[in-house]
């Protein structure tokens, strides 16, 4: 099923963990519609501007989300979020572009290392019920994930 010109539903469902553990990561029609909104409003415009991107995590059913240690209230469960990167573009630059040019619910620069543009990834979400425009950076401090306000380099 196509979600847009360049994105299919299948690429948001792929999970090595789901395959290994026999988890049925199939979304409801409501989740598919949320994924379509995410793609149409965020990912396809990014693709049109910068070229192909990698979606490293899309939809996660609750069982899969638990298996990978995702947040209990993760927007991935609802099809509202994706973790992405664009080959040849720094993830900090991608997060800043989204922050400055798009309507989004959250953009999180996750586990990026200064001086290593391809390190980490960008979590971006879209909510048809209203977007908060939260901008965060996720880092490890003392073995725990901490979210800092803004894009911190």
Q: How would you sum up this structure, described in words?
A:
By secondary structure, the chain is an alpha+beta fold. The chain has a single domain, classed as Muramoyl-pentapeptide Carboxypeptidase, domain 2, CATH 3.30.1380.10. The protein has helices at residues 16-21, 29-50, 62-67, 91-101; strands at 54-57, 81-85, 106-110, 121-125, 134-141, 144-149. The radius of gyration is 15 Å and the shape is globular. The termini are far apart. The mean pLDDT is 97.
Beta strands, count: 6
Straight-line distance between termini:
38 Å
Major beta sheet, strand line-up: 1-2-4-3-5-6
CATH class: Alpha Beta
Oligomer: single chain
Summing up helix and strand content along with how strands pair, one would put the structural category as: alpha+beta
Spell out the helices and strands N to C.
Answer: HHEHEHEEEE
What is the radius of gyration computed over CA atoms, rounded to a whole number of angstroms? 15 Å
Percentage of residues assigned to helices: 25-40%
For the sheet with most strands, the description reads: 6 strands, mixed
- Mean pLDDT over the residues: 97
Q: Tell me the β content.
A: 15-25%
The backbone outline, from C-alpha atoms, is: globular
What's the helix count? Answer: 4
Number of domains: 1
Which CATH architecture is right?
2-Layer Sandwich
């Amino acid at each position: 099923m196509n979600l847009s010109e360049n994105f299919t539903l299948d690429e948001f469902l792929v999970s090595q963990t789901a395959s290994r553990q026999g988890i049925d990561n199939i979304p409801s029609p409501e989740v598919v519609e949320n994924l379509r909104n995410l793609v149409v409003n965020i990912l396809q415009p990014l693709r049109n501007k910068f070229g192909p991107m990698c979606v490293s995590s899309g939809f996660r059913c609750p069982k899969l989300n638990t298996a990978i240690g995702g947040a209990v209230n993760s927007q991935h469960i609802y099809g509202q979020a994706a973790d992405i990167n664009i080959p040849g573009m720094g993830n900090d630059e991608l997060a800043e572009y989204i922050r400055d040019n798009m309507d989004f619910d959250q953009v999180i620069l996750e586990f990026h290392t200064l001086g290593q543009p391809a390190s980490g990834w960008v979590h971006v979400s879209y909510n048809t019920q209203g977007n908060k425009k939260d901008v965060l950076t996720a880092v490890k401090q003392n073995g725990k994930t901490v979210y800092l306000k803004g894009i911190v380099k």
